[in-house]
Structure formats: structure tokens, C-alpha cells
Amino acid sequence: MRGSLAGLVAAGFGVAVAELLAAATRPEASPLVAVGAAVIDATPTPIKEFAVRELGTHDKPVLLASVGLVLILLAAGTGALGRRHRWAVAAGASVLGAAGASAALSRPAAIPFDAVPSLLGATIAGVTLWWLLHRAAPATAAPSTVSADAQSVATPGMGSADVQSAATLGMASADVQSAATPGEVDSDARSGAAAAVSEEARPVGDFDRRRFLQAAALVAGGAVVAEGGAVGIRRIRGGSAARSRADIRLPAAADVGRPVPPGTGPGFVTGNGDFYRVDTALTVPRIDPDSWSLRIHGMVGNEMRLSFEDLLRRPLVERVITLNCVSNEVGGPYIGTAKWLGVPLAPLLAEAGIKAGADQIVARSAEGMTIGTPTATALDGRDTMLVVGMNGEPLPLEHGFPVRMLTPGLYGYAGACKWLTELELTTFAKFDAYWVERGWSAEGPVKTASRIDKPRPFAHPAAGPVTVAGVAWAQRRGIRAVEVSVDGGDWNRAELLPVPSIDTWVQWRYTWKATTGPHSLAVRATDATGTPQTATRATPFPNGATGLHTIAVTVA
Ligand SMILES: Nc1nc2c(c(=O)[nH]1)N[C@H]1C(S)=C(S)[C@@H](COP(=O)(O)O)O[C@H]1N2
Ligand SMILES: [Mo]
């Protein structure tokens, strides 16, 4: 127990100091975040899919808690083993330090310094544990003295005054007996005995429980102070990113495109707070727009570097565009539509001068994501842009502040890098981006799909006319028709509500004459080229789910 406790508080202190140093210098060097991020990157795609599906937005807290649990077990084990074998202290600290440091260094945007918080924290944890175990160790003395002293403790009234007072503190005699038994010094049964006995009268061979607990409490207090400091610094940093975001006055768009037409239903534009979020970032990157810059390099004639100001000085466009995630299951929630404000990418690339053969744009983000986008999609007339505003506000921190990319018609993993810092012109042959390395398709065009939002699955609508409604999407192609089938019967045309462009979802509705009993409702969309959506079920991996969204309802 004593060893495990020492291990826990020592590790807590070391980690807290490491977190404090990281918070004050490079947040990405935090050992917990770095290990968590390394775990995310190393996790096989099917397990990642499972986690996103089963845990949703809780996936990250669950991951961090798991990392914490492993740390707790390692720390307690090291402490317990370290009581007998001091080499275990050095070994445990080395393992933890190496894990944190190598995880931090493995981050794509790492610098050598990122190893320092982990190494320092592990050293502090090791030294602290050594010291605590030293305090927890029995005093050394000749065995004969041990039994003599022990005897006196065990026999109330026949020992020194100190021992007597110890015995009169209400200790059961059994406790005193066991405290007196050499070789049982590790047992928790002696509780209180050593604490009650003064330093001089302390039986040799026992340890000083009070002194140990005081030391452990001191270390635990240090951990709380350091962690509090880390949290405080993070909050100040986060606050300053949020403040600088709040201070930004985005210029008006020079070209506002087609607005959302009248006649769309509620929810056509997704509010920023309701917009789905999918990324691998354990902590939301907090970037100061004043120190942000974008580098355009690789296979270009003129390498460029633009500040946030430079970007805002260029003519901005405003477009309503639907963004969706390749990991979305049939009928799933990872899709949203927003009014985006941004700088068109094509003129920027023209200034940079793309070299022949550069068929891939690799976008890099502040925290090291890489997203590869076909160069053609920036040049074929679609509204591929560097986004600075979302629904009339600066880009929210979670959605890529200060600048993200957006490519209409591509899933997010292939065209929508958040927290953007770099665009490198290269080729698909030369470089695999993050998700492509993990088996996802190099190009990610959105597949035609549709979803029933009303009624909800397993709802109990009343018999009679029931409005069946939802969305369908095929960005870049547009939707020509949506049809609804009841109980596997004929396909009935749904009414389509107006849209601003082919790059947004379409809202549809169909009035169903519902009859009492259980029913299934299915939806299918046909894109504007006349191709119906694929009815065959496919998983999101490797290039987007297919299949018809079908729900069951019981009409009352
Ligand atoms: N830096 C970074 N950008 C990223 C990702 C990421 O993990 N990191 N995920 C991508 C994926 S898979 C999707 S679907 C979209 C989601 O954007 P949103 O969170 O703003 O909805 O961001 C894309 N951009
Ligand atoms: Mo995604």
C-alpha cells in the first residue's frame, strides 16, 4: 500500500510539473496529450471507427481517461516494486519518460524541445518516489534491539512513558501486538502506533507513518499546485485565443453568391453550435491570428507566405456549402450546412504558379494533420476556399480558427483541413496524407445520399397524413429527385424545397397516408446526372458509406 501510494503521488507530481512546463511553453509537448495523440494515430482504423460510432464526442475524454488509468497502474506498480527493488524506480521513471518524450517527438509538428517536459517530469517523479520510499523504509538496526523494543511496545505498562501513552490512545492490543512483530512492519495493522510514538521512542525496525504521510501529502500538494498552474495557464491561453477571435472584424464579402432562397425549411443552415465536429485533435488548437501565417510551397514557381491580415485584404466570397464526413454512417449526423466566408484558392495558386504535374495539394495544420486534395478541385471553377468565417462569425475554434480549407464536393478528410498553416503542391504518387496512410481512398468525392429526419425511428405517429421529411445531398452534382418507399413498395416522389446551389443538401418532404400498424420507411435520392444512390450497403471505410436509410415506425 505504502509503495503504491508513494508511486501515485510521485507520478502525479512529475506529470503535473511536466504539464505545467508544457502549458507555459509548448502545449503540444504535454505528455498526456502527446501520448493520447500517438495512441489515436496508432489505433487501427476499424477500432477508431468503432470508437467514433460508439462513443461519439466522448471518444477523446474516454481516451484520456484510459491513458490516465494506464499511468496510475504503472505508477502504483512501480512504487510497490520499488520498495523492495530500488532499480524499479529508475526503470519505471525511464519507461514513463521515454513514452511521453517519444510520443511528443512523434507528433508531425514536433521540435526537439517537446521531449523536455516528459523527461523532466519523469526525473522529478523518480527522485520523488525514491525519497518517499526512503521515508517509508524501516529504520535499520540490529535485530536484537528490534525485538527488545518491540517487546516493550507490546506490553503496556512495562515500557517507557512514551510507549505507555501510545498504548493509552485507544489502540486495540492486537494492533500493538502486530506492530511489535518484526517482519510485519509492512502490515497496515500497526496503524497509529508509530504516529503516536515520539521520534526517540519509535521502535527501530518500524517506519514513521506520520512522517511518511506528511511527505506524501507534501508531494500531493505540490502536484495539485503544479496542475492548478497548468490549468490556469491553459485557461489564459485559451481565453486569449477566444478574445482575439472576438476582436476580429471580418470584412464584408466582395461576392456574396446566392443566398439561402426563401422557402427552405428550418434547419437548412446548421448553427455553429450544432455543427458536427470530427477531428483527431485531443485539445482544440488555440492559434493567435497575429502570429499565424500560411506558407504555400512545394511545386510552385513563387513560394508565398501570407499573414492573416494579408488574407483578409484579398477579395472574400460568401457561399452556402454542405460539409460532411466520410465516416458518417447511413442516416448519421456528421453533416452540416453553413454560410462560409473565405478567400478563393484558385487565384492564390495562380500567383504561386503551380508547376506541371503537381496533382495534389497537401494541407498541413498547426497540430500536424495532413489532408491531400486534388489540385484540379481548386481550379475547376468550384468554390474551393480558405475559410475565415462561418455563419457570420469568425471561424469557431473547434472548426479550425483562424483559417481552414473547404472543398465543395469532397468529404472533410479530403478537402477541409482545419487550423491550416501550410499548402504544399506535390503529387499523389509522392505523398500519402494522414487518412490515406491509414487505408482511406486518396480522393474523397461525396457520394449521393439521403436521410429521413422525420418521423424519428420507432416513433408512433397517428394514422392519417404523416409528413415524412429529411435531406439529400450530392454536392457538385445536385439532387434531381428524392423518393420514399413504404414497406418496400413503390417509390413515391417527394417534394424538393429550393436550394442556393448544387453544393448544398436539399430538404425534401412527402405526405404519407399512414395506416395503423408497424411500417418501414425508406428513402432514395437521384443526383442531377440521373444516377440513383447506391442501394448496396457499404461501410464508411474506405471512401464513404452507401445504402438506403430505412426506419421503422408504428402508426397508432
Ligand atoms: N486539422 C484537422 N483538420 C481536419 C480534421 C482533423 O482531424 N484535423 N478532420 C477532417 C474531417 S475527417 C472532417 S469530416 C472535417 C470536419 O470538420 P468540422 O469538425 O468543422 O465539422 O474536418 C477535417 N479537417
Ligand atoms: Mo471526416
UniProtKB/TrEMBL annotation:
<dbReference type="InterPro" id="IPR014756">
    <property type="entry name" value="Ig_E-set"/>
</dbReference>
<keyword id="KW-1133">Transmembrane helix</keyword>
<keyword id="KW-0472">Membrane</keyword>
<feature type="transmembrane region" description="Helical">
    <location>
        <begin position="88"/>
        <end position="109"/>
    </location>
</feature>
<dbReference type="InterPro" id="IPR000572">
    <property type="entry name" value="OxRdtase_Mopterin-bd_dom"/>
</dbReference>
<feature type="domain" description="Oxidoreductase molybdopterin-binding">
    <location>
        <begin position="282"/>
        <end position="435"/>
    </location>
</feature>
<keyword id="KW-0732">Signal</keyword>
<dbReference type="InterPro" id="IPR036374">
    <property type="entry name" value="OxRdtase_Mopterin-bd_sf"/>
</dbReference>
<feature type="transmembrane region" description="Helical">
    <location>
        <begin position="62"/>
        <end position="81"/>
    </location>
</feature>
<dbReference type="Pfam" id="PF00174">
    <property type="entry name" value="Oxidored_molyb"/>
</dbReference>
<feature type="signal peptide">
    <location>
        <begin position="1"/>
        <end position="18"/>
    </location>
</feature>
<feature type="transmembrane region" description="Helical">
    <location>
        <begin position="115"/>
        <end position="133"/>
    </location>
</feature>
<keyword id="KW-0812">Transmembrane</keyword>
<protein>
    <submittedName>
        <fullName>Oxidoreductase</fullName>
    </submittedName>
</protein>
